Amino acid sequence: MEMNFHTRKWVKPEDLNPNHTLFGGRLLQWIDEEAVIYAIIQLENTKVVTKYISEINFINAPVQGDIIELGIVAIHFGTTSLTMRCEVRNKLTRQPILTIDKLVFVNLGEDGLPVPHGKTSISYVKDRLDNAG
């Protein structure tokens, strides 16, 4: 499955740690937000929560002024869950920054409990809109 890189971030002074590189917590915040938006779009439900994030592999540390891009791809559709893989890289040099093999999100019903989502593969909003007409 091809990794799609949609979101780009510009590393600014307020994103840095005391070593003057991107603070890992900030990057994880960006990834969690990107992944939940991806899950919401795929599952067509705004009630989605983070269940699990596997080992996080920091490869290179971005510095102030770098432009990074976040890539997310769905790798497994469970009954109530969606598992994704994430890669972050430098937009200009393509140098890898971080990988996460598994991010698991759970589809919730109105009662806040897991509910089957009925999805089995990646779909795109454009295709859903085209098929609705």
Task: Characterize the structure shown.
With 133 residues, the protein is α+β, with helices and mostly antiparallel strands. It has a single domain (4-132), classed as Hotdog Thioesterase (Thiol Ester Dehydrase, Chain A, Roll), CATH 3.10.129. It is 21% helix and 37% strand. The chain is built from 2 helices and 6 strands. The protein has helices spanning 24-43, 125-132; strands spanning 4-10, 48-53, 56-58, 67-77, 81-90, 96-107. Strands 1, 2, 3, 4, 5 and 6 form a 6-stranded antiparallel β-sheet that branches. The longest helix is centred in the N-terminal third of the chain and has 20 residues, at 24-43.
Structural class: alpha+beta
**Helix-strand string:** EHEEEEEH
Which overall shape is indicated by the principal axes computed on the Cα atoms?
elongated
Compute the separation of the termini in Å: 28 Å
What is the CATH topology assignment? Answer: Thiol Ester Dehydrase, Chain A
- What is the residue-averaged pLDDT? 93
Indicate the percent of residues in helices.
Answer: 10-25%
Stretches where pLDDT is under 50 for at least 5 consecutive residues are: none
User: What CATH first level would be assigned?
Assistant: Alpha Beta
Observed structural traits:
alpha+beta; about 130 residues; 6 strands; elongated; 2 helices; six-stranded antiparallel beta sheet; Thiol Ester Dehydrase, Chain A
